[in-house]
Amino acid sequence: MSNTIFGKKAEIAICKWLRQVHKIPSQVVTQYKAPFDILANGYRVECKVSSYNKLPYGWGWSFNIHRHGILNESQTDFYVLKLCNVPGFIYAIHLVVPAPIGIPVVIISLRSLLTRWGKYFNLLAPLRETKVVSRDSP
């Protein structure tokens, strides 16, 4: 399966997860070059998915936040990082991380999942609040 198809299936699955499991109104953005993947309760959400892999410094998950080497997080409010094939788990883990992250590639090991990234596990409270958009903003 190509990375594009893998990513698109993940977007649909994350949107379904937000809408059906957590009752957060959301829809997948269908435009190919859109700067975000899902519109969830007025927030712009970028989806990233990774399987548990052998990395240069051990095992973990790697997420490219940049696009073609350029890190532009101005049009994203949140990232949903979907960690697949988590050792000891049946289902994937979803990390809901507020933007900007500020680094082009996020690498998560089991240790950093517990020490640094665990606080974002199913962090859905901000997405439950409807985003208020002022008419003055572009």
Kindly describe this structure.
This protein is an alpha+beta fold. Helix content is 22%, strand content 30%. A hairpin with an 8-residue loop joins strand 6 and strand 7. The protein is globular. The termini are far apart. Residues 134-138 have low confidence and may be disordered.
Largest sheet: 5 strands, mixed
How much helix, percentage-wise, in residues?
A: 10-25%
What count of helical segments does DSSP give?
3
Strand line-up across the major sheet: 1-2-3-6-7
Question: Which outline best applies?
Answer: globular
Defining key terms:
3 helices, disordered C terminus, five-stranded mixed β-sheet, alpha+beta, single chain, 8 strands, 30% strand
Provide a compact summary of the structure.
This protein is an alpha+beta fold. 22% of the residues lie in helices and 30% in strands.
Produce the secondary structure layout.
Elements (H helix, E strand, L loop, with lengths): L2 H19 L4 E3 L9 E3 L2 E9 L1 E3 L2 E7 L13 E7 L8 E6 L6 E4 L1 H8 L7 H4 L10
Parallel strand pairs: 3-6
Antiparallel strand pairs: 1-2, 2-3, 4-5, 5-8, 6-7
